[in-house]
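Q: Give me the 3D complex with flavin-adenine dinucleotide.
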Amino acid sequence: MRVDEAFERERAAGRCALSFEMFPPKGALTLDEAHVIAGELAPLDPTFVSVTCSAGGSGNGGATLEIASMLARDLGVTSVAHLTCMGLTREGLAEKVAAFRAAGVENVLALRGDPVPGAGAADYPFARDLVADLAEAGFCVGAAAYPEGHIACDDLMEDVRRLRQKQDAGARFLVTQLCFDNEAILRFLDRAHAAGITVPIAVGIMPFMSKQQLARMVFMCAASLPSPIIKLLAKYEDNPESLRQAGVDYACRQLDGLRAQGVDGLHVYAMNRPAVAKACAAAVRG
Ligand code: FAD
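A: Here is the predicted complex, encoded as structure tokens.
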């Protein structure tokens, strides 16, 4: 199913959309492992599951298409394949489009990707350029949004104007970067709507698992760290298991608060952990 239709179906049923992100597991057992993880996500009845790709086609990014296809074909789950601009030429995109069509992939999240050394010259400098060509090719295209602004853009209004360009280029839904502050998320949604964004926005929430992981994400995404999280880090400094549980609980409170505010959708960065996805689904759907 197309993601725009899936959002519409949820809206008509009076439900908040709920989606999960998966990444292709590393190593030889990639697809078997992915099958197991996807098999545990499917009964949670997600609106869609998106599958990440490594920028520039490096690492395990090649499995994105296979996993997205498997989710839809074998499990009946609406899936989204991520695709980045890194190193992507027009000929390369034509090949991707043919492969997506052959595999029955209907939805693509079009991303610029983070610059990769040696990825080569690309024909798509920004995500909006890729959005346009994928939409033209008939896909239901999504794009990334940043509640606290993209790390390379220090003007929040400019950031949202660039987001609007992705909608104008044909994006039919948006998924946001993780953010630990619901107030910042709600302010972003107001800015986006005021800038004429009308497509559904799935708000990205990441349950944190450890101090190291939090530090990595905060510096990678320029996400702010609210003091309640810093207090949890201090409280459970010597107890990693309790900290993980506190991270899931914090995410569940965020999800519950955002659902109560009537957001279009909630997108959980479940990190290939079905138990985390399950806890989050319970917070959203009861
Ligand atoms: P863009 O929308 O192209 O924006 C990139 C930067 O360029 C921004 O600073 C923007 O303000 C600026 N910009 C945009 N248009 C213009 C313009 N016309 N002129 C000047 N500047 C402009 N990365 C991966 O490698 N693989 C993944 O699977 C992946 N999945 C993601 C999923 C989500 C939901 C999100 C939020 C991010 C994901 N990323 C992924 C990370 C993403 O690739 C990076 O955040 C990347 O740096 C920006 O991607 P974008 O699509 O937002 O780029």
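A quick observation: The longest helix spans residues 240-260.
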